[in-house]
């Protein structure tokens, strides 16, 4: 079996422009503020980085899962006899073979490991098979005879309120009524809008895979690309009827994650088969199984009414938000809280009345995906701001500037914005950025057409639009979530090791952990240990948690080791440790009397310390949607320039100018990469990514039918300003970087298309027919 570690040895960085570095004779730059590359970058580029699909073990069996072809049906019978009797088949498990809790789920344990009486969505697991060859396992799964009584699926979330209960817990997962201010207030200018946001898939780059290995003590080890290993361990232990200490989850290489990386049900199936057979069992999901098994972004229906005065100042916002959770609750309650809380956007709104619902349907399950809740409402409230600007005859950027939020203002939840909120500064930065040159209206410049290099259309039909959007996200968990992470830092010789169960999902945490230790202890060679559940929990890898909470835990542990290192020297020279400093591997005193190296001070000793980081507590929203629900906020402004063929409806995004509130730049190159990736992901949601269903069935569960942006689709992304106004309650003062551009960029693209066509653009992704200009 193969694990992975970010820290394989010392890494020499080539400084980027603007980075802190010295001349050729200087030591390699390290510490915070430097573009330190990832230690695993060479292995990934050379194709030798170990992912879950690469795992192997002696005596390996292969698993396959039988999934429902229907979105709604009663299960009358399941006959596994033919599958069990096939040569090479070692085990078949169904609902009857689950020894512990039969339900699981990220937020609410309402999802069965295997459906047993009813099927609630297309692709729901019915049974799993272990065999000596993957083809045998798939054939055996197909040989399981299931008799269904097919039912009419409930696929319209608006009908879920009156439909028969699809689940024992009912169809309504959560309702949040937010009341803020005076409901009788009416503005001089009123605009209304209806908005629909489609179903976006996380579409993980690498195959979803896992390996379960039985242990001599009757437990099991699960090797998989988990983003929340301790939660997965607890779910698995409850399912297997085992104590948590007899289940170990080992995190393998994660090939990027924009959501919960793995379908937890896959891990449970593997563990059950390993325990049943006494052999290691592996499953590498096909792309179709991934589309059917994991959660997607919530499709959302939004109705808005904005009130403003004659000067364009917002007076009141009214909204209804309906989120389609699919068959199971997952993290829908959390997503709805974000949607309702941020329904007015980063604007000052003295009166707000928002109604939000998350409901069950027979559609594919919805769950955590970067910027959940905030992305859907951003597309709607920014559409409303464009409508207000048009109705009042104002510049779209100017009307936004008249209403932007600032530190000290109130959110509609009643919470005061105490963190830096430089929204006006961000918007002015993108507004003042020079616009790109207009394309030449000649046949030789066909590559500039929205249809692409070989696109149809005429240059004379292309119109350029400039649009704006402001977005916001919350950091860490919300509504009373106990955010805590634990880290250990060990120093032996000239090498430091970090042990923290924070999963590296592509966010750069492992690189950040190395930089923190380098900065604090002056040690160049820092290793980050592989992650497993034998370590204390660090929580989920989402909402920028690990930059803040896990990075904070690493910093505290490193400072404790620093104190251990400096105390003997301070005592010897009769001074406090505060009068000593560590720079570039050297320890010096304030007066220059003491000067030695870290290696000499260690003198062969091994030092270590463990620390926790826990941010200040939050509280749940009350029955009126009020409460201090969020630890902190991050903001972004994007200006989009798009060319639209108003006859064909084809769209080419020319440029995205981004200004972002980042708190503090910890790794310049890594930060820019995260922002660019977030903008590109948002571009996909704006123009192409839509997991289409027909009567609850996914129409094309593959990358042929589900279009995603590639490097050829990415526009020129210009990061025009990074505002470094440190959040005093955050470790290092930094804010998460990747979620807020995902939230903001779809709204900016829609705004640019509105400007080019004069059409309302109320649906994402934007359909070509919606971008065809109305006849003049």
Would you kindly provide a written description of the structure presented here, covering whatever features stand out?
- The chain is α+β, with helices and mostly antiparallel strands and 776 residues long.
- The protein is 24% helix and 26% strand.
- The protein is built from 15 helices and 31 strands.
- Strands 3-7-1-14-11-12-13 form a seven-stranded mixed sheet. Strands 9-17-16-15-10-31 form a six-stranded mixed sheet. A four-stranded mixed sheet has the order 18-26-27-30, sandwiched between helices.
- Helix 7 packs parallel to helix 8 and helix 11 runs parallel beside helix 12.
- The longest helix is centred in the last third of the chain and has 28 residues.
- It is globular and about 70 Å long.
Termini gap: 66 Å
The structural class is alpha+beta
Low-confidence stretches: 1-25
Helix content: 10-25%
β content, as a range? 25-35%
Q: Given the structure, what is the number of helices? A: 15
Q: What gross morphology would you assign?
A: globular
**How many beta-strand runs?**
31
- Going across the biggest sheet, name each strand in turn: 3-7-1-14-11-12-13
Please describe the biggest sheet, giving its number of strands, its sense, and whether it closes into a barrel.
7 strands, mixed
Estimate the mean pLDDT confidence: 88
Q: What is the gyration radius calculated from CA atoms? A: 27 Å
What is the subunit organization of this protein?
A: single chain
């Amino acid at each position: 079996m193969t694990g992975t570690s970010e820290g394989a040895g010392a890494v020499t960085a080539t400084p980027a422009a603007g980075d802190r570095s010295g001349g050729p004779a200087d030591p390699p730059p390290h510490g915070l503020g430097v573009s330190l590359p990832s230690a695993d970058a060479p292995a990934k580029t050379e194709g030798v980085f170990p992912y879950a699909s690469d795992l192997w073990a002696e005596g390996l069996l292969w698993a396959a899962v039988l999934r429902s072809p229907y979105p709604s049906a009663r299960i009358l019978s399941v006959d596994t006899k033919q599958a069990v009797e096939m040569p090479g088949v070692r085990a078949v498990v169904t609902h009857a073979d689950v020894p512990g809790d039969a339900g699981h789920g990220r937020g609410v344990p309402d999802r069965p490991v295997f459906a047993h009486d009813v099927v609630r969505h297309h692709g729901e697991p019915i049974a799993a098979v272990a065999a000596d060859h993957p083809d045998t396992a798939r054939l055996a799964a197909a040989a399981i005879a299931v008799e269904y009584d097919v039912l009419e699926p409930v696929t319209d979330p608006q009908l879920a309120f009156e439909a028969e209960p699809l689940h024992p817990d009912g169809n309504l997962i959560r309702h949040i009524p937010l009341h803020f201010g005076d409901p009788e207030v009416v503005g001089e200018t009123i605009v209304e809008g209806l908005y629909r946001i489609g179903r976006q898939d996380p579409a993980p780059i690498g195959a979803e895979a896992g390996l379960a290995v039985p242990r001599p003590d009757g437990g099991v080890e699960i090797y998989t690309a988990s983003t929340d290993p301790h939660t997965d361990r607890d779910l698995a232990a409850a399912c297997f009827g085992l104590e948590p200490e007899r289940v170990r989850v080992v995190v393998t290489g994660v090939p990027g994650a924009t959501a919960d990386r793995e379908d937890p049900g896959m891990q449970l199936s593997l563990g059950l088969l390993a325990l049943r057979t006494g052999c290691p069992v592996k499953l590498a999901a096909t792309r179709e199984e991934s589309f059917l098994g994991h959660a997607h972004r919530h499709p959302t229906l939004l109705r808005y009414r904005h009130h403003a005065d004659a000067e364009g100042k917002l007076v009141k916002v009214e909204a209804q938000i309906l989120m389609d959770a699919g068959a199971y609750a997952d993290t829908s309650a959390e997503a709805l809280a974000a949607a309702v809380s941020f329904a007015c956007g980063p604007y000052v709104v003295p009166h707000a009345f928002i109604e939000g619902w998350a409901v069950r349907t027979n559609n594919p399950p919805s769950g955590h995906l970067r910027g959940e809740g905030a992305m859907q409402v951003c597309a709607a409230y920014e559409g409303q701001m464009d409508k207000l600007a048009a109705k009042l005859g104002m510049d779209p950027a100017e009307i936004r500037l008249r209403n932007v939020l600032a530190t000290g203002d109130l959110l509609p939840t009643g919470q005061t914005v105490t963190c830096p909120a430089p929204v006006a500064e961000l918007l002015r930065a993108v507004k003042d950025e020079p616009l790109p040159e207009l394309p030449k209206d000649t046949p030789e410049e066909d590559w500039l057409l929205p249809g692409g290099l070989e696109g149809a259309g005429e240059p004379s039909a292309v119109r350029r639009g400039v649009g704006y959007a402001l977005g916001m996200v919350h950091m860490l968990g919300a509504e009373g979530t106990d955010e805590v992470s634990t880290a250990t830092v060990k120093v032996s010789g000239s090498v430091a090791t970090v042990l923290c169960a924070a999963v590296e999902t592509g966010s750069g945490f492992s690189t950040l952990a190395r930089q923190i230790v380098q900065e604090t202890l002056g040690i160049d060679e820092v290793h980050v240990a592989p992650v497993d559940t034998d370590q204390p929990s660090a929580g989920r890898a989402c909402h920028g948690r690990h930059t803040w909470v896990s990075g904070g835990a690493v910093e505290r542990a490193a400072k404790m080791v620093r104190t251990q290192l400096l105390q003997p020297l301070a005592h010897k020279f009769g001074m406090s440790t505060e009068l000593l400093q560590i720079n570039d591997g050297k320890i010096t005193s304030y007066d220059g009397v003491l000067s030695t190296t870290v290696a000499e001070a260690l003198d062969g000793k091994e030092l270590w310390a463990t620390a926790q980081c826990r941010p200040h507590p939050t509280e749940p929203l009350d029955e009126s949607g009020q409460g201090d629900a969020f630890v902190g906020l991050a903001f972004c402004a994007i200006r989009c320039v798009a060319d639209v063929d108003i006859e064909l409806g084809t769209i080419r995004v020319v440029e995205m100018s981004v200004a972002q509130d980042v708190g503090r730049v910890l790794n310049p190159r890594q930060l820019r990469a995260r922002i660019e990736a977030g903008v590109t992901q948002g571009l996909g949601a704006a123009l192409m990514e839509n997991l289409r269903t027909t009567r609850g069935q996914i129409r094309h569960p593959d990358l042929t039918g589900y279009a995603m942006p590639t490097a050829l689709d990415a526009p020129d992304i210009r990061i025009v300003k990074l505002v470094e106004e440190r959040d005093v309650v955050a470790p290092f003062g930094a804010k998460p970087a990747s979620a807020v551009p995902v939230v903001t960029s779809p709204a900016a693209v829609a705004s640019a298309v509105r400007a080019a066509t004069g059409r309302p653009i109320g649906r994402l992704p934007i359909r070509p027919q919606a971008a065809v200009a109305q006849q003049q």
